[in-house]
Design goal:
The complex is a heterotrimer of chains A (about 130), B (about 270) and C (about 325). Chain A has about 130 residues and is mostly beta strands. Chain A is built from two helices and five strands; from the N terminus they run αβββαββ. Chain B is globular. The chains are: A mainly beta (about 130), B alpha+beta (about 270), C alpha+beta (about 325).
Chain lengths: ~130, ~270, ~325
């Protein structure tokens, strides 16, 4: 899996409903718009908290070392209202995630898209996904 | 008392001072009086509106405790003074107590204290009651609970684990019964390390003894931590002060001012 | 909680009506409500506006709704316009400047997921800055210079003071929050409950005076009254830690606001706020928006901020010795 951002046709790309900068922090203050990263890894944890949910993903580097990446999502309140369920992102799920890297240099990023291997959408912009991501 | 409908006034500063007169108003606020019979609202329910406060030391320790420097003594609010911890949980409580200066997130970070601790924090709270919803607004960290008088607790799989619980209220006669679930496991019941899991289920009962005193009973049910249900109870007192109202206690902000006063930090 | 006798009040009211014959409007009245809808009344006689709402307007809309000559781009290191202009697929969906050709959409966390009870009132809608019409805010030149200079130290933040208040989970004041909200109306009050940051604005309708000047609040002290179907709210006693937008990072403790909530129809409340900050501006100005009611089954829920925020840690790291 290369580090190129993988753009997919509609129905596969997963878009998040949060509005950056609508409240609490400027994207520009914390993340680097020039550093889009894409990783493939295994979900270790999801924190469903405000102001931002987090997905933690173990990513194996070229050297075989595993880094636990932290990807920032939006507020979970809107996601739950769209019908999203916690058990649709279980521990161990393999995902492709892309996002903009934190200016701190840590393995932290502001997520833009989350793709399941089967092409299912995890977060949609408007309509509610059904339970179990079906 | 009935009004005839909205009437227009001028901003008559000369006559009336700086605040426009209110058609709907009672006279400007004066000390409240306590009558033996509590007032009922138009929908027939007891009137719980007002600024209320607990007057005890449960915030420090919900069980009997003697005085220490900085800790006022107090009799416990736990019925029977025993908390039926499972054996592993009793050890955990003692560990919490030993670590209380850093492990109590409310004390350390000013995080939301959960329910029922928010009730007996030494800060007033406001009950605002309409026929459609009841809001409990707390001065501490501007905590807020909307008591939904309809609907069910959300499915935990499709909802946040909250700090303050999801509150569903109903009337049993003149008692407001509030049922709470959907908690996270991050809060303590006091500063002494009494704790719970995310299976916590709380049932509160608010009933007026008279217009200025409320009986507050709360049942704690958490099968992951306790061997059985247990209860706390205490009176709540109406704040009788002139113009009693909530102000702001923004301790998160205050703590940030202290913690980050020398930021940015040299690496 | 017993009620005070009203005789004294009625006498004063009668005298007032005799003495004062004309209604003196607040400068720059909002346009009259367009519909003839008559709201139900609460037991104490208020027009009943209870329910959950999301808010469109005030700020955060398309750039054309904001200051016309404010700092943008490189003039404001916090500016997120570059991110907003990325194509779909490279940024999160849900931009703040989507077309206003159709109904104004509520903004704010969760705002885009609010199922609305009905359509917006007939346009045109007053959203964003409405006075002055050219959207050039009446800054005192020295204060405008200071805020532009201030912004240049915000990214990276030169100290805690340069971190956006909202980013550190301070109470958002009147402007930074699109909802959802819940309005409830107990006797002699209007409460605006906010999901975001779980705060309560209590608007006192009982004729009490404002607090003394020694008490300063993030949310100010609000007293109000109804005039027909318009709730007018006067708020003072702000502290120095409120802001209006990313481009106006602070207002002063001299801030005084006058809000008008005008019932447009059963699902919409037109909103206008006069911002009067004599330390920063030479005269008051106004911004407008629309509160849109959610479907009856919609509930506000918990949005705790500080408990989950990593912003200060990300920006500054851990203080030494902790």
């Amino acid at each position: 899996m290369s580090n190129r951002l993988r753009l997919a046709v509609s129905g596969v790309i997963l878009l998040l409903t949060a509005i950056p900068g609508a409240a609490h922090h400027s994207f520009a203050a914390e993340f680097d718009i020039g550093k889009l990263v894409s990783v493939h890894g295994t979900v270790t944890k999801v924190d469903w908290v405000n102001p931002h949910s987090w997905i933690y993903v173990d990513v194996k580097g070229a050297d075989g070392n595993v880094t636990n990446w932290h990807f920032e999502l939006g507020s979970p309140n809107a996601l739950f209202r769209l019908g999203w369920k916690k058990d649709a992102i279980p521990q161990g799920l393999e995902v492709d995630i892309s996002g903009y890297r934190s200016k701190s240099g840590e393995p932290i990023a502001n997520a833009v898209s989350v793709t399941l291997p089967n092409g299912k959408e995890l977060f949609t912009g408007g309509s509610a996904p059904t339970s179990n991501g079906k | 008392m009935k009004r005839s409908g909205p009437v227009r006034f001028a901003v008559a500063v000369i006559v009336l001072g700086s605040a426009p007169l209110m058609v709907l108003a009672q006279a400007p606020v004066a000390a409240k009086t306590s009558s033996a019979a509590a007032r009922k609202l138009a929908d027939g329910r007891p009137d719980l509106n007002g600024i209320w406060e607990a007057v005890n030391t449960a915030a420090w320790d919900i069980q009997d405790h003697g005085g220490q420097l900085g800790i006022p003594p107090g009799l416990g609010v736990v019925e029977g003074n025993e908390i039926p911890y499972q054996p592993w949980a009793l050890a955990k409580k003692q560990e919490n107590f030993a670590n209380r200066k850093t492990a109590d997130l409310t004390e350390t970070n000013c995080y939301l204290p959960g329910v029922p601790r928010i009730t007996y924090m030494p800060y007033p709270f406001q009950i605002a009651q309409s026929s459609k919803a009841i809001a409990f607004s707390y001065e501490f960290a501007h905590a807020l609970r909307v008591i939904h008088m309809e609907g069910e607790h959300p499915d935990p799989n499709g909802f946040l684990d909250t700090w303050m619980g999801d509150s569903r209220g109903r009337w049993e006669g003149d008692t407001l019964v509030v049922d709470l679930r959907n908690f996270n496991d991050q809060t303590w019941f006091d500063k002494a390390g009494n704790f719970h899991s995310d299976a916590l289920h709380v049932v509160e009962r608010y009933s007026l003894a008279d217009a200025a005193h409320m009986n507050y009973e709360v049942t704690i049910d958490d099968p992951k931590v306790f061997t059985k249900e247990w209860k706390m109870s205490m009176p709540l007192y109406l704040r009788m002060d002139n113009n009693a109202r909530l102000l702001e206690y923004e301790c998160v902000f205050y703590k940030q001012e202290e913690k980050y006063k020398n930021a940015p930090f040299k690496k | 909680m017993s009620r005070q006798p009203l005789r004294a009040i009625k006498v004063v009211a009668a005298v007032t009506i005799v003495l004062v014959t004309a209604f003196v409007p607040v400068a720059g009245q909002a346009p009259a409500a367009k519909s003839q809808w008559t709201p139900a009344r609460t037991p104490d006689g208020q027009p009943d506006i209870q329910g959950a709402y999301a808010r469109a307007g005030i700020y955060g809309l398309a750039p054309q709704q904001m200051e016309s000559n404010g700092p943008h781009g490189a003039e404001n290191p916090l500016d997120d316009t570059a991110y907003s202009r990325l194509p779909d697929g490279q940024r999160k969906r849900g931009r703040s400047d989507e077309s206003l050709a159709d109904s104004p959409q509520p903004q704010g966390e969760g705002g885009r997921a609010v199922p609305l009870a009905g359509p917006a009132p007939p346009g045109p809608w007053r959203l964003g800055l409405v006075d002055p019409p050219d959207k050039v805010l009446p800054w005192k030149p020295e204060e405008d210079k200071k805020r532009r200079e201030f912004l240049m130290h915000t990214n990276p933040a030169a100290s805690l003071r340069y971190v956006e208040f909202d980013a550190r989970c301070a109470l958002p004041g009147l402007f930074l929050n699109g909802g959802p909200f819940q309005f409830i109306q107990p006797e002699n009050k209007v409460l605006i409950l906010s999901e975001y940051q779980h705060y309560t604005r209590t608007i006192h309708l009982d004729g009490r005076p404002h607090l003394g000047s020694g008490i300063r609040l993030f949310m100010g002290d609000s007293i109000g009254h109804w005039e027909g179907n318009t709730l007018i709210v006067d708020t003072t006693n702000f502290n120095e830690f409120t802001s209006f937008t990313r481009e106006i990072p602070y207002l002063s403790d001299a801030l005084h606001t006058i809000e008008r909530f005008t019932i447009a129809d059963q699902n919409n409340i037109e909103y206008e706020v006069t911002v009067d900050d004599p330390k920063l501006f030479t005269k008051p100005w106004k911004t407008a928006g629309l509160y849109r009611k959610a479907k009856p089954e919609y509930e506000i829920t918990e949005y705790a901020c500080a408990e989950g925020s990593q912003t200060l840690l990300n920006m500054f790291g851990t203080p030494p010795g902790q």
